[in-house]
Amino acid sequence: EAGVAQSPRYKIIEKRQSVAFWCNPISGHATLYWYQQILGQGPKLLIQFQNNGVVDDSQLPKDRFSAERLKGVDSTLKIQPAKLEDSAVYLCASSLVNLAGYTDTQYFGPGTRLTVL
Amino acid sequence: AQKITQTQPGMFVQEKEAVTLDCTYDTSDPSYGLFWYKQPSSGEMIFLIYQGSYDQQNATEGRYSLNFQKARKSANLVISASQLGDSAMYFCAMREGYSGNTPLVFGKGTRLSVIA
Predict the structure, then answer these.
(1) Per-residue pLDDT tens over the stretch B10-68
(2) Nearest to A112 by CA among A2, A24, A16
(3) Is A5 part of the contact surface with chain B (CB cutoff 8 Å)?
(4) Residue B100, by phi and psi: left (phi above 0), alpha (psi -120 to 50) or beta?
(5) Are A108 and A91 in contact (CB under 8 A)?
(6) Phi, psi for A72 (deg, rounded to 5)
(7) DSSP characters for A37-54?
(8) What is the pLDDT along chain A (117 residues), one digit of tens a residue?
């Protein structure tokens, strides 16, 4: 079974530029998450989707970050304009919703390492 | 307050020895799940083991076991017979509530180095 796919793996941009990351979850996984992992810290949730609806975006800096999951499958996370403090690894994860309606273990992709200069 | 505390920034272990990575958590929700993930230098977070708050037995998965002490709010990861490939960052995480629609909260991680 294919895992969570992300692209690009690495991105370097100047501050105030825009950038987009793409994620394709494990087939059949209804729930998709975007995390930000700053160097030396654990991942922090940015946004959670169930199918194509947003479950939690309370930690997403909405003045510059946006995310969508059209058709309930793959997802795009965008930053516009980028700041120096956005330098981090952006991880995508997905999980099943089981028969009881509960969300299962999260499986992560390889991440995108963003450097903002 | 920190919900997940990992007090060991770095650990060393000899190959083939066992090692324990510490994790304490803080929650008032009676339903929660505890997870351990491994993050090698490649960056991917690899799921290792899960323990539910109502599980009576400690979870085990191959060489990984979780020493769950509910009264102490600790969920330590034990790796038996360490291998060189175990060198990585290890993160403890918690999800509060039973439905799973609450986010995972991660600790700051422990860097494990296995020495030949």
Answers:
(1) 999 999 999 999 999 999 999 899 999 999 998 889 999 999 898 889 999 999 999 99
(2) A24
(3) no
(4) left
(5) yes
(6) 70, 20
(7) E-TTS--EEEEEEETTEE
(8) 689 999 999 999 999 999 999 999 999 898 899 999 999 899 999 999 988 899 899 999 999 999 999 888 999 999 999 999 999 999 999 988 765 656 578 899 999 999 999
Reported confidence tier of residue B97, pLDDT bands at 50, 70, 90 = confident
Provide, as residue numbers in chain A, all residues whose Cβ is less than 8 Å from the Cβ of B4: 42
Measured distance CA(A20)–CA(A7) in Å, rounded: 9
Query: What would you measure as the largest C-alpha separation in chain B, in angstroms?
Result: 43
Any B CB within 8 A of A33 CB: yes
Sole residue written with tokens 């969300």:
A103
Inter-residue contact A6 to A21 (CB < 8 Å): yes
Contact yes or no for A105 and B108 at CB 8 A: no
Predicted pLDDT of residue B5: 96
3-class secondary structure per residue, chain B: CCCEECCCCEEEEECCCCEEECCEECCCCCCEEEEEEEECCCCCCEEEEEEECCCCCCCEECCEEEEEECCCCEEEEEECCCCHHHCEEEEEEEEECCCCCCCCEECCCEEEEEEC
- What distance in Å separates the CA atoms of residue A23 and residue A94, rounded to the nearest whole number? 10
**Which of A89, A102, A108 lies at the smallest CB-CB distance from B100?**
A102
pLDDT reported for residue A96:
84
Helix (H, G, I), strand (E, B) or coil at B115: strand
